[in-house]
Amino acid sequence: MRPNIVVGVEDGESMYKKWYFEVVIDHIEQVTHVQPHIRVGWATTQFQSSPGHGDGFSSNGIGDNTYSYGFDGQNIWFAGRAYNVSNSDTQQDVFQKNDVIGCLLDLDIPEMWFSLNGHPVRGLVREFNLTGMFYPAISLSSRVSCRFIFGGDHGRFIHRPPEGVASLYEAMLIKQKVSIDPCFSFGNIERNRLDGPSPIQHNIAFTPQPVRTSHIVLPSYLDNVSDRLTVNSHELWCMNKIASGWRFGELRDDAQKI
């Protein structure tokens, strides 16, 4: 399962590079001798889920191929391999009901790490491929349910993200509505209808193209008023913000208009 929110890196763009979201386990039930399957993490737009076992290219779960990274409570999965990152003093072997998994993606280093109930795991992923756009993803078996928390109006974080990290909801486009879609679906077999996952919309990151004013020379009679014009422009900007309901605060919060 994945939401319709994507982040990424493009040359010259001004998109923020550090993102965080959480997942809460609402229900988990073991119905056979096999442990329930649930992995939480990130996938890229090259990720293609298929009903075969993971061999580095095909995938039936997050982390089964080279285009996704998953955490199952004990291991970080990538390319079909599990890397144990558990800490026996603070972590259990598998996820339990009401567990909170934090997922952080830093596209500057690049680096991604996970936390369980507020405790960072002792392993992380670094120097991964930045090709394509990244989105949160969950793979789970039957009798397992969970929910995404993106911050702001889309759920308040249970554990505060590190300083300088943005809530994932801030990557949403204007007037965009969040939807959760399957990464893979057979559709309705009984009615002979085959459905695939909805296509991912590749968000085009804003690339600023500032206007160069170094070659502009003001007339001499404007030299005395240029500073005043700058102050007046800033005052007009402040007045518009106040009229829109914004207020002063030490930390910016677009949801609260601070």
Report on the architecture of this protein:
This protein is mainly beta and 258 residues long. The protein folds into two domains: 2-191, Jelly Rolls (Sandwich); 218-258, no CATH class. Helix content is 7%, strand content 27%. It has one helix and 13 strands; from the N terminus they run βββββββββββββα. The protein has one helix at residues 226-243; strands at residues 2-3, 18-28, 38-44, 68-71, 75-78, 81-84, 100-106, 111-116, 119-126, 134-140, 144-149, 166-167, 180-181. The strands form three sheets. Strands 2, 7, 8, 9, 11 and 12 form a six-stranded mixed sheet that branches. A five-stranded antiparallel sheet has the order 6-5-4-3-10, with no helix packed on it. A two-stranded antiparallel ribbon has the order 1-13. The longest helix is centred in the last third of the chain and has 18 residues, at 226-243. 26% of the residues are buried. The mean pLDDT is 83. InterPro entries: B30.2/SPRY (IPR001870), B30.2/SPRY_sf (IPR043136), ConA-like_dom_sf (IPR013320), Ryan_recept (IPR013333), Ryanodine_IP3_receptor (IPR015925), Ryanodine_rcpt (IPR003032), SPRY_dom (IPR003877). One of its GO terms (molecular function) is ryanodine-sensitive calcium-release channel activity. It holds the Pfam family RyR. This is B30.2/SPRY domain-containing protein. Keywords: Calcium, Calcium channel, Calcium transport, Ion channel, Ion transport, Transport.
